[in-house]
Write a structure and sequence with these properties.
Layout lengths: L30 E3 L20 E3 L2 E7 L12 E6 L9 H14 L1 E4 L6 H9 L25 E2 L15 H7 L15 E9 L8 E5 L1 H6 L3 H7 L3 E4 L1 H8 L9 H6 L3 E4 L1 E3 L6 E3 L5 E4 L4 H15 L5 E5 L6 E5 L4 E4 L10 E8 L10 H11 L14
The structure holds fe (ii) ion (FE2).
Length: 390
């Protein structure tokens, strides 16, 4: 990606391939997570490595991605599978507190075969934060496949049970979800956690969600670059990522679509929830660096997304069984889905999204945006001496 202009940015190829497992080469260090003994062998490293497991009370924790630096410790690992929870009854508050601690540390937690249904999915989510996002596409129980305003239908299934067809508006809307993003960064009152639960039986080898570690990626930036990024504010716009995913159909969102989702402003560099670490808060929704031109903004934003999604910061989780659930923290990770394809099989995943109640929940308000604009105008893209991605 060399030249960014308003006219060409949306016509660039930006639909990501199904990188796992098809494009996964044995030389790649991008990691896939699946259970040992699940039958099929993945084409790259099996990272559910029980030799790395440890106990915390009644829970067994297996970290997924280990940083490659010499000074790295378990506390800088990214992603973990957690076993040992009795999902058949409400989760006790002491376990919830433990899980939040583990979540702060790993940013993405994977649970297998939970057996949760819609109600228990929502109930567990409500134990993790006071407010859940209402799905804006919920038009009443009789008009929604799932029938719960707190659950987003991120499946590829229509209300009548058929698979979403190519060229439907829903198909095109979903293409933006295959770009690296954080959920709801386009809301001024953003969300902290997402909990995605699988229903039915996913087709083996066909269903993946990919995660990137925005904390380690920030830490590994050169100090001089960090210094320049620290005060920048980003405008996030859902319709920007929809247009990137589907440039023709979402060239101009419908008036009612635009009205429901105005842009939002958040700091680029933020304090992560625990451990005194910082993280990049970045996503395909990111449209402008406040105070910068559109072209320079996109250049920096995609440079950073590419930086964060180098294989050493990324792992991919395969959906193996109904009841599998992944809970991630949008404030310290990015993720993406595999894109829809004409040959895809049914993938019934439903998401609860928990609104942030931390100190950065409301992002950056008007006066601060104006101040950030003045500061940012003094920095140009050319001053950022960015290391080459491998
Ligand atoms: Fe998402």
């Amino acid at each position: 990606m060399s030249t960014f202009t308003e006219t060409n940015i949306y016509s660039m190829p930006r639909v990501y391939a199904n990188t796992c497992p098809e494009a996964e080469s044995s030389s790649s260090s991008s990691l896939m997570l699946r259970l040992e003994g699940s039958g099929e062998k993945p084409r790259s490293e099996v990272v559910h490595d029980s030799s790395k497991s440890y106990r915390k009370g009644s829970l067994t924790i297996t970290p997924v991605l280990h940083p490659c630096t010499e000074s790295s410790t378990r506390s800088t690992s990214f992603g973990a599978q957690v076993d040992g929870i009795d999902w058949s009854r409400p989760i006790p508050e002491d376990i919830i507190a433990q899980l939040i601690e583990i979540q702060d540390e790993y940013a993405v937690l994977i649970f297998r075969k939970t057996g949760l249904d819609n109600n228990r999915h929502v109930a567990f989510s409500q134990q993790l934060g006071q407010k859940l996002e209402i799905n804006p596409f919920f038009y009443g129980r009789e008009n929604d496949r799932i029938g719960d305003p707190f659950l987003w239908d991120v499946s590829n299934i229509n209300r009548d049970g058929s698979i979403v067809q190519p060229n439907s508006r829903r198909w095109h809307h979903s293409l933006g979800n295959a770009l690296w993003h954080t959920d709801s960064s386009y809301h001024q009152e953003r969300s902290k956690y997402s909990l995605l639960l699988s229903h039915g039986t996913p087709a083996r080898g066909g269903s993946w969600t990919h995660f990137a570690d925005t904390r380690q990626a920030y830490e590994d930036l050169p100090q001089a670059v960090k210094g320049m990024l620290d005060d920048l504010v980003v405008e996030h716009d859902l319709w920007h990522s929809r247009r990137l995913g589907s440039p023709t159909i979402f060239k101009e969102p419908l008036p009612q679509e635009r009205a429901t989702k105005p842009p939002a402003y958040h700091r680029l560099v933020q304090q992560a929830p625990a451990q005194g670490r910082k993280a990049l808060y970045i996503a395909a929704h990111a449209k402008l660096i406040v105070g910068w031109s559109y072209e320079d903004s996109q250049k920096l934003i995609w440079k950073l997304i590419d930086w964060c999604t180098q294989p050493k910061y990324v792992f991919s989780m395969e959906w193996l069984d109904g009841g599998d659930m992944v809970w991630w923290d949008n404030r310290q990770s990015m993720h993406r889905a595999n894109p829809y394809t004409a040959s895809m099989t049914a993938r019934d995943v439903r998401r609860a999204t928990i609104i942030d109640d931390g100190p950065f929940a409301w992002g950056v308000m008007d006066q601060e945006v104006a101040a950030a604009k003045q500061k940012a105008e003094k920095i140009s893209m050319g001053q950022l001496d960015f290391p080459q991605n491998p």
